[in-house]
């Protein structure tokens, strides 16, 4: 089977990804049965991750995609989300660093993913810093608008965390006061 045919089947699988998973998987299996194809492995990783929630197999497919072609940019946009979901933050940072080192990757998108990583770890200041970088690097208005919404969402989370810590502190103080007054 020629590479050209595999590329056509991969494009068809990619086109049918969100609305016809059965057809998508069928075409991907055909492509993966032949030569190594980074795009097909990446898409199969996405199916296992996003649709089936089978993180072990998803990780294998993403890893294969990177081994076949470490410059296949799409893998750097989806693989870190899997690593964030399974709380493998060190590996996620490593994948993002490699992605940043490649000249052809969308740095604004990678900064957004890095912000999600920090947000998951409740490092809101770092997340906001990455989102601001993402907005600065964005090459279209839609991404800038999206990042503004993400910034306001994180600001809201940050305010909620501050309120809850204040409530906990006042409860501790009140409980100490009650305890002390009971001894008197």
Automatic annotation (TrEMBL):
Q: Which InterPro entries match?
A: TPR-like_helical_dom_sf
Question: Looking at the record's lineage, which domain of life comes first?
Answer: Bacteria
Under what name is this protein listed? Answer: Tetratricopeptide repeat protein
Q: Which organism is it from?
A: Kordia antarctica
Organism taxonomic ancestry: Bacteria, Pseudomonadati, Bacteroidota, Flavobacteriia, Flavobacteriales
């Amino acid at each position: 089977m020629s590479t050209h045919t595999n590329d056509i089947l991969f494009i068809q699988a990619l086109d049918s990804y969100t609305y016809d998973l059965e057809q998508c998987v069928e075409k991907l299996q055909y492509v993966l049965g032949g030569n190594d194809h980074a795009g097909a492995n990446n898409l199969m990783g996405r199916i296992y991750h996003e649709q089936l929630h089978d993180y072990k197999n998803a990780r294998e497919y993403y890893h294969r995609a990177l081994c076949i072609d470490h410059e296949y940019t799409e893998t750097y946009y989806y693989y870190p989300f899997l690593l964030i979901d399974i709380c493998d933050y060190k590996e996620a940072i490593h994948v993002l660093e490699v992605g940043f080192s490649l000249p052809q990757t969308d740095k604004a998108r990678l900064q957004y993913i890095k912000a999600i990583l920090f947000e998951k770890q409740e490092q809101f200041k770092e997340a906001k810093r990455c989102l601001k970088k993402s907005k600065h690097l964005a090459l279209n208005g839609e991404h800038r608008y999206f990042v503004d919404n993400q910034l306001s969402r994180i600001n809201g989370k940050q305010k909620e965390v501050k309120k809850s810590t204040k409530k906990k502190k006042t409860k501790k103080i009140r409980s100490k006061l009650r305890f002390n007054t009971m001894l008197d």
